[in-house]
Hints:
Number of strands: 0
Order of helices and strands: HHHHHH
Low-confidence stretches: none
Amino acid sequence: MKKSRPLDISEFLDSDAHIASYLSSVLEDKDTDLLRQAFGHIAKAKGMSEIAKASGISRELLYESFAEGAEPPFVVVMKVLQALNIRFVFDCHAPEEKDQSSNRKSKKERKRLLKESLARGMADARENRGRFI
Length: 133
């Protein structure tokens, strides 16, 4: 039986469009830990040295800013996004209803669902490679 390896999201972040889509998905979850992890995946895909050079931030500060448990300064996040040619887009939407019921998903469950969603999206992207903009 062939042993499977864990999903490495960075392998699928091979275009600016995929990176932007990934960050948008992560931001929808409103989980700062996942966002920090997403920057780690992007750094692995693009190369920390390339991001450091394009952002004007040292590799050491980037590693420190996006390490587990870190809270990266907003200016660092903005410079990294600029280096990746990604911009924030703000949109108005109806306010979310606060869920006071027991149906509220745990943080662990939301992370699991996000990973499943990303895996499905990346599988679709592989199947349709070359058909995207």
